[in-house]
Structures are given as C-alpha cells and as structure tokens.
Amino acid sequence: MAGAGGEGEAPALRALRAVRRCLVAFPAEARELGLMESVPYLDSLLSPLEFYREWVCPNKPCIIRNAFGHWPALKKWTLTYLRKVAGSKMVSVAVTPNGYADAVYQDRFVMPEERHMLFSNFLDIVEKKVISPSVFYVQKQCSNLTEEFPELLGDVEPEVPWMSEALGKKPDAVNFWLGESAAVTSLHKDHYENLYCVISGEKHFLLHPPSDRPFIPYELYLPATYCISEDGSFQVVDEKAADKVPWIPLDPLNPDLEQYPEYAQARPLRCTVKAGEMLYLPSLWFHHVQQSHGCIAVNYWYDMEYDLKYSYYQLLDSLTKAVTLV
Ligand SMILES: O=C(O)CCC(=O)C(=O)O
Q1: Which of 177, 247, 298 to mutate to test the pocket of ligand 1 (most atoms within 8 A of CB)?
Q2: Ligand 1 near 196 CB (within 6 A)
C-alpha cells in the first residue's frame, strides 16, 4: 500500500524538480541572449519601422531623448500654470497613509481611497501650503488626461504618431501623473507597450524583464480599500464578495530574501527618467516606480499584441506557479 501513492508521486516530483531547474536557468539564458545591463539611451527618434524592429519586437526598454521637445507642456507645465488652467475642477486623487496605492499590506491587496477634490486643494498639498499626514497622488490611469484634464491635452499630443504607426493602433489610454515624493508604485507588470514621458522632475524605475518571472513571487490577496475615519486615521476595509487578486508581495527596494530566496537571483535594472525624456517600457516588464516631489508625467498605453510572446509568458507563469506549489 505504502508503495502505491509513493511510486506514483516520486516521478511527478522528479519531473517538477527538473522543471524548476530549467526555470532557474531560464532568466540567465534570456539575459545572455541580448538583455542589457542598463537601459540604453537614444538621442533622436527612429522611424516607426526601426523602432518596431529594434525595440518593440525584441521587447527591450530604452530611454529616448528629444522625443517630445516640441510639446508646449515642457515649458508651460509649472504648478502655477496647472493651478491657473485646472485648479477649479474636481479631480480624482489616490490617498494613502503610506504612499503605496495598489500594494500588499496586512495580507490584503489594498487600493487607495479615491478622493474627489478640487485640483487646487491637491496642489496646496504638493506645494506644502497645506500639511497632511496622508500621501496624495494623481494617478487614476484610465486615460485621466483625456477624461479629467481635457484643458491640458493641447499642450501634449493625443497619441505618439510614430508609435501609433509602428503598432498600427492608437493608445488605449493617455494618463497624467502628479504626486508627492512619498508616492510609490509597487512592483507590477502591464499588458501595454508604455511610452512614459517625464515633463518635470524625475521618475526612478526599477525594472525586471518578463523572463525574471520565476524569481518574482505572486500570491493571492483579498482586495481591500483604505478608508479615512473622522479622526484622520486609515482603516483597511475589505471589498465585499470580490475575487482574490494576484499581486507581488515583495518590495524590491528591501526584499525579504528569507521569505522569497529566489528573488536573490533576479537582476533588476534601474534607470532615472528626467524631464524631457521618454522611457519605452515594453509590455510585461515588471516595474516599481518612485519620483521626485511634484514630478509631472504623461504616458501612453498601447495594448500589446496577444501573440506567441504573450503565450510564452503565460506558459512561464503557469510553470512557475506549478513548481512554487511543490
Ligand atoms: O508613474 C508611476 O508611478 C507608475 C507608472 C506605471 O506603473 C505605468 O505607467 O504602468
């Protein structure tokens, strides 16, 4: 009797261990096949075909200088100007006690309080005319530049023409980002080809290629939202009847290697994107983002192609989950 289950199980376990060995070797092989040690700079624009061939198709990030020098936003967008043109409107602001919106906290996936407030009141906080213990970030993402700040659209462009040409589509979203230095975006990935343009200040990106997936932990968390109480303290309130959310519990700035030892083998790339520079962040790359205080940025999300690259990533993800369970 004892042998029946055991004999069946041993080969399966052996197979899973073999898969684990392949998964551990895979990211290094991917690196050897052309991933870079740092994010390269381009000093001028390429043609749509060249950009597609050299960066989108190989799924490699780069920082492009002089990509949007013609945008009026680069000269016009000071906090004073933004207050003048949009100060009197209500906007959505992510408010958290610790700067982490959409991140794991107390074994939950916690989303920010989405506060509707006058943009001028938000600017008062960024300019430190009003002191608040909470952290505020305009980061609504679902095309908030077009939806919430149409008066600013004329200072940028509704799309990046050469990228639209390269990909044969328009962006799904054009987002506006403005926040405090304490506002951090936790490690995650998106199914977008992302053109991230810094208008003023600096953004600090920590990146992992999709091939690092075997070293990056995902767990399932009950979703919850920060809610502020009358006394100004935050409660974490569970979402009712919501499905669990897969999210990365690890902080790449201070990784808990006892709990997630595999992460020691991952190789993050770090880069700072300065005012006037555009980061091309390819689809499925993991990213963690910090910023200088009052940094202003606009980005364009182009939906990725759900092609073989996507399927291979899904396979890598499934195999990683399978071996993590053993
Ligand atoms: O700027 C940020 O804080 C986050 C940007 C981001 O996650 C994205 O563009 O996908």
Answers
A1: 177
A2: yes
Distance 78 CA to ligand 1 centre (A): 21
Q: What is the DSSP letter of 239?
A: P
Q: How far is the CA of 155 from the centre of ligand 1 (A)?
A: 21
**Residue 213 pLDDT > 80, yes or no?**
yes
* Average pLDDT of the residues of the chain: 94
The candidate with the shortest Cα–Cα distance to 246, out of 277, 267, 271, 221, is: 221
pLDDT of 32 above 70: yes
pLDDT for residue 107: 96
pLDDT in the model for residue 28: 79
Q: Beta-carbon neighbour count of residue 168 at 10 Å?
A: 10
**Is residue 144 within 6 Å of ligand 1 at its C-beta?**
no
pLDDT, tens digit, for every residue of 89-106?
999 999 999 999 999 999
Q: CA–CA separation, 269 vs 255, rounded Å?
A: 15
Degrees to nearest 5, angle at CA 123 with 118 and 126: 140
Lowest average pLDDT, out of 18-22, 77-81, 117-121, 136-140, goes to: 18-22
pLDDT more than 90, % of the chain: 85
Ligand 1 centre distance from Cα of residue 156 (Å): 18
Sheet holding 113-118, edge to edge: 41-42, 62-65, 277-281, 192-200, 295-303, 173-179, 135-138, 90-96, 113-118
**Distance of alpha carbon 162 from alpha carbon 46, whole angstroms:** 9
Distance from the alpha carbon of residue 11 to the mean position of ligand 1, in angstroms: 44
